[in-house]
UniProtKB/TrEMBL annotation:
It comes from Pristionchus fissidentatus. Gene3D superfamilies: 1.20.5.190. This is Gluconokinase. The lineage of its organism: Eukaryota, Metazoa, Ecdysozoa, Nematoda, Chromadorea.
Length: 556
């Protein structure tokens, strides 16, 4: 309560000061604005902790209002500060007495409607059946090759004689290597037979046979126990097929809870300003009402939306809707500096805070009221820079459906059919994230003859007429203006600094498992940082996994 009172007082002082031209141009104003922002960040963490302790409607509404204030304050005030101040905002706030760890936004809980939570829980069980059905379809249709049409056109073909000569040369090399390995094996066997002069003691032979027999039966027993464990956990195909729930109920549950939280009514009816929140906390927070009773009447469950779930299953089988490929949470990802372009202003800021301001908070608030806008975001970065990892973490954190549009999906399916089904699904379930990859193909003006470009343009045009939330990904910044105009926010993922690089290395080593499994841990992380100086975040992770995962596997 005291932190909220201080925030309201400082915010009112800022409004009063901005009416004066001299105070608006004062040198102390940027520090004062930054302090208000980070006081809001600290208050948001306190509200998140209260929701975790007592998830009552009053605490949920407080978390929503503070999140809304923080997002709007960043756009209206922080983004308009001098660029030199924003670039060194952490150092400036450290001089003002604000520690660095308090500048990062980390929330463990999101206030979402119960309908979205129940719907995601039911889809988790139905995805197991859909995975088995997808595997069966792949087995019938065979393996499809992922071939890019543009790369095939650019490839230089060879004549039949050149192809025959190349095949013959490779076959001769293969036969020579196989013959050399066979002769080496025969010679080693002969040398072993010649060197074996001492006969084995019969008692030692019996002991050796018994030891190998016990080892065989032990390994067999462990393998059977592991297979049984996988069946019980449902992580094997047999375990998935032997689930206790019937297929129909797992794929299409009859109904899910649509109970409306009381905080939704508060958010719609009353003002979302921090001043109104302060007045409500002082007047009604400690009053015991019906919304704080756990034994109150529950709303009746609504009928199951079978058409929506059938659309979800169709898009999931087409691999348009996918599970996040990584199990990392957004708070566990190593943040870095990113350059953002918004409203004609470009500055550098912390990537995690930017994703919270422009993605997490808008997605959270839009579930309660459609009046909250969700501007589209364009992520720009090199290959393996972490764009897909942040999108997956965002989908996991917000319980949003992750829709991927890339060349592989559009090449395997009819783009017109996918566009129609996707448009209907997004309208019925707008709590979704549409991820469009490889936008660097729009370097020049869109070509009408290119299937992928025309499909992406038609999808962007159709999604712009809905309330969909789209995140585009590109490796270059110079794309055609027709596509760039769809994304008002552009985030350029910069190269990792030394501290972030060491954080990525440490986190990758930690994810390998028990450190005792890796006998040759690096003595100094600075040596690993120098070895990965040319890599970005994804390349650094792959380097660590290639070097230490193999050692750990051989050691075990």
């Amino acid at each position: 309560l005291s932190q909220l009172e201080n925030l309201v007082r400082d915010f009112d002082r800022l409004h009063v000061g901005d009416k004066n031209a001299k105070l608006r141009k004062s040198a102390a104003r940027p520090t004062f604005v930054a302090r208000i922002f980070y006081d809001g960040v600290r208050l948001l963490k306190e509200a998140d902790a209260l929701v975790r302790i007592d998830p009552c409607p009053a605490n949920k509404r407080a978390c929503l209002v503070i999140s809304s204030f923080l997002s709007s304050f960043f756009t209206e005030f922080v983004a308009k500060l001098p660029i030199d101040f924003i670039e060194n905002i952490e150092a400036n706030m450290a001089d003002a007495g604000v520690p660095k760890h308090s500048l990062e936004i980390r929330t463990r809980n999101l206030v979402l409607p119960q309908l979205i939570i129940d719907r995601e829980e039911n889809r988790k069980s139905s995805r197991r059946f859909l995975d088995v059905q997808r595997m069966a379809q792949q087995k019938e249709s065979g393996v499809e090759l992922d071939i890019d049409e543009e790369e095939v056109k650019q490839c230089q073909t060879m004549t039949k004689e050149e192809a025959v000569l190349m095949i013959q040369s490779f076959e001769r090399v293969y036969q020579a290597i196989s013959r050399r390995d066979y002769l080496r094996h025969v010679m080693q066997k002969a040398m072993d037979l010649r060197s074996e002069k001492k006969k084995m003691d019969p008692l030692q032979a019996v002991i050796k046979i018994q030891a190998r027999t016990r080892g065989y039966f032990t390994r067999k027993k462990v393998r059977e126990m592991r297979e049984k464990e996988h069946e019980l956990l449902g992580i094997s195909v047999k375990g998935t097929l032997l689930q206790t729930f019937p297929v129909a109920s797992r794929l299409c549950p009859r109904q899910y809870s649509t109970e409306k939280d009381t905080s939704f009514k508060h958010l719609q009816s009353s003002s979302t300003s921090i001043q109104a929140l302060l007045n409500d906390i002082k007047s009604t927070y400690f009053q015991i009402g019906d919304d704080r009773r756990s034994d109150g009447p529950r709303a009746a469950a609504a009928a199951f939306d079978e058409q929506l779930e059938n659309l979800y299953a169709d898009l999931y089988l087409r691999r348009v809707i996918t599970n996040p490929t990584r199990i990392l949470a957004m708070d566990s990802l190593i943040s870095q500096r990113a350059s953002i372009s918004i409203g004609g202003t470009q500055f550098s800021f912390d990537l995690r805070n930017l994703m919270h301001m422009f993605a997490v908070i808008p997605l959270q608030l839009h579930t309660w009221s459609s009046s909250f806008a969700r501007p589209w975001i364009l992520l720009i970065g090199d290959e393996l820079s972490g764009k897909s990892a942040w999108v997956d973490a965002l989908s996991t954190k917000t319980n949003a459906v992750l829709i991927r549009l890339n060349k592989r999906v559009l090449a395997k399916n009819r783009s017109l059919t996918i566009g129609t089904v996707l448009k209907v699904f997004v309208r019925r379930n707008d709590h979704s994230i549409v991820s469009i990859d490889r936008l660097e193909s729009f370097r020049a003006a869109p070509d009408s003859g290119n299937t992928y470009r025309s499909s992406i343009l038609s999808s962007l045009k159709a999604l712009s007429k809905t309330s969909a939330f789209v995140i585009g990904m590109s490796r270059i910044e110079e794309i055609t203006q027709t596509v760039a105009d769809y994304f008002p926010i552009k985030i350029h993922m910069e190269k990792l600094d030394n501290i972030s690089k060491i954080g990525v290395i440490t986190h990758s080593l930690h994810r390998l498992g028990d450190p005792n499994r890796i006998p040759k841990l690096p003595q100094r992380l600075t040596e690993m940082r120098k070895a990965t100086s040319k890599y970005n975040s994804g390349g650094t992770v792959q380097f660590v996994q290639r070097k230490f995962a193999r050692i750990a596997r051989n050691y075990v």
